[in-house]
Amino acid sequence: MKTFLALLLLCSLLVVMAATEDDLGCGDVSKENMVISTALCDACEGLFDEARIGELCRSNCFQNSYFEGCFDSLNLR
């Protein structure tokens, strides 16, 4: 499971790092914060084994209750 999450994180980082700020669609979010937030959502998706959670976590540029729930579920507070 740890290997899967590590690979998922690596893939997410590569995709986001390759994107330009305009491609990301969240003008106020820096690329660095986008990478971290995307990795958090991907880890949450892997934790719960539910693909829709990652999508919901990333919605509205991470400004939603799913993002906060993932943050809490991963014990990051």
Order of helices and strands: HHHHH
Low-confidence segments, given as residue ranges, are none
The fraction of residues in strands falls at under 5%
With helices defined by DSSP (H or I, 4 residues minimum), what is the helix count? 5
Question: Mean pLDDT, nearest integer?
Answer: 80
Sheet of most strands: none
Backbone shape: globular
Radius of gyration: 12 Å
Structural class: mainly alpha
Q: How many E-type strands? A: 0
Termini separation = 23 Å
Quick structural gist:
Helices cover 73% and strands 0% of the residues. The chain contains five helices and no strands.
List keywords for this structure.
77 residues; mainly alpha; 73% helix
Overview of the structural elements:
The mean pLDDT is 80. The longest helix is centred in the middle third of the chain and has 18 residues, at 31-48. The chain has a domain at 29-76. It has five helices and no strands. 73% of the residues lie in helices and 0% in strands. The chain is an all-alpha fold and 77 residues long. Helix 1 (2-18) packs antiparallel against helix 3, helix 3 (31-48) runs antiparallel to helix 4 (51-58) and helix 3 (31-48) crosses helix 5.
